[in-house]
Amino acid sequence: MSAPLLEVRNLTKFFPVRAGVLLRKVGDVHAVDDVSLTLGRGETLGLVGESGCGKSTVGKTILNLLKPTGGKVLFEGRDLGTLSRSEWRVLRRDIQIIFQDPTESLNARHTVGQILEEPFVIHKLGTPEERNEWAGDLLERVGLPRSAVSRFPHEFSGGQRQRIGIARAIALKPKLIVCDEAVSALDVSVRAQIINLLLELQRDMELALLFIAHDLSVVRHVSNRVAVMYLGRIVEQAPSSEISEHACHPYTRALISAIPLPDPDRKRERIVLEGDVPSPVTPPTGCRFHTRCAHAVKVCEEKTPEWESVSERQQVACHRWRELRGEIGG
Fold this sequence. Notes:
The protein has twelve helices and twelve strands. It is an alpha/beta fold.
């Protein structure tokens, strides 16, 4: 078996909480706590969970946009935490990101041509004429006319701006793209078009994608594997083709029950979670989901569940997954 393109080991990211006149540190926001993931070449890993669970922080920490508190991120075997600023600049050609809001991520003062030529300028690639030609090629590749190089981002719709963001991300032919809620802000019809574009580019360029979203139905559609995240921790990982029928964690089952069925005659029992998501400043002891889990017992409150293998390709962190599998017919 070949080595993974990306390997995340026990990644942790805490943000300090400060209060008082002197802004003394009084605690930490446990945004990401002991997260481990792997991603192969040309593979899509979906990272899904409720808003505020830490999934976007995982993506930004992998990219070194946020400095990790602990753990390691390995890319092609290299520890990214040991790289200098100049080494990171070279590595940026291989790792890119597509942000959720293209309006915020595209410089409103630059033309589309300037935005798309910037990666080539930074990495000293090509002549001005060649860069202009490459910018036109990128626009055509994402379904926009070459004439768009002279226009500004505000002249485009949300879906078109996201296409420009995608064009910028693929400019240097990266090996990995982090899609940070890349379709969440788009209309449903436009969302489908952007997803199809991403899948087409992935196939043609052999891209690896870390697809971050809160919609499990979308993640399941685009991903080879799915990792489910709750309050800073991964609770279950499984192939996307199996997650719906064989989910073991109660939180994963609740997410699946919320997915609308296309057939109105089919019924699915909705699992409604009680209470609010706990504060990441003072996360619950033991299993972090136990405060909202209908199946929690005393051990869930006292002991953090270890990772267990359900099958060769599925892992879960739950004390009661074997019993629940039998009770619910998983």
